[in-house]
Design a protein that fits this description.
The protein has 2 domains: 140 residues, Up-down Bundle (Four Helix Bundle (Hemerythrin (Met), subunit A)); 134 residues. It is 81% helix and 0% strand. It has 9 helices and no strands.
Length: 275
Amino acid sequence: MQALLIGYSDSSFNSLRSNLINLSEDCSMELVHNIRLNIKKIRALLDALDYRDNSSNYILIMKKVNSLFARLGYLRDAQVQVSLLEFYRERVGEEVDDIIDNINKRKKKINSNLKKKIRKLNPFDITLLNQRFDETIECLDNENLEEKFQRKVEQGFNQVIELISDSTDEDVLHRIRILLKELTFNLSIMKKAKVKTKYNSTFSVLLNSIHKKLGNWHDLFVFLSLINEIDDCCGRAINLLQIVESDKGLIHQEIVEDLKKLRGIKPKKTKRGDI
């Protein structure tokens, strides 16, 4: 398992380093998504293994990574919002034009701040972090590694189940979304490292479906907040607000039904070596 986990670690860090180099020239929606995904995978790996490094250099590198992640989040939100506005244009017409102009102006400021963050993060910093983390993995035996991941996944699943109810409100959905994201990454790492788990493919398919719907729901949640902020009670986006609110409500209902199915799943222990 050690070798497979180091391979997963190296792949994640190498992909991040490569994408960061490309980011200076390309801020496409796909690249922004990929870099944020790289960072999320690395965070999940560090967290699952309880990685600790109190050196000033490590703290500084992670501060730069987290700052870049936040700025990329702002850009990603703006990109998704423009994409959603173009989608809703067919249903509300020119009502979206002023909002698109407003978001594009915000994107220019975000891009300017993003370039500053990129310059501060040297690709060599990522290489150094990768090396230190691999050394930590090498110091752990396979049984210890498996126990760490099993415990992390079990805790995450139980936390999600405890939050599920027949009337799951928006605050709870936000908490479940964060927990499911972490659970999904940990299960993905376990699969790559060929760690045995009692969560079968049926569970994974349902989990990934809920995770995707929660992402779509969250995008509409952020989208509505932005429209309200830009429109500022002027009433120019009434139709748009009503349609988006209705779409968000439908996704919310689907998620609640899927969460009930998830709550009804009783994972069974598999034989050693099963995945």
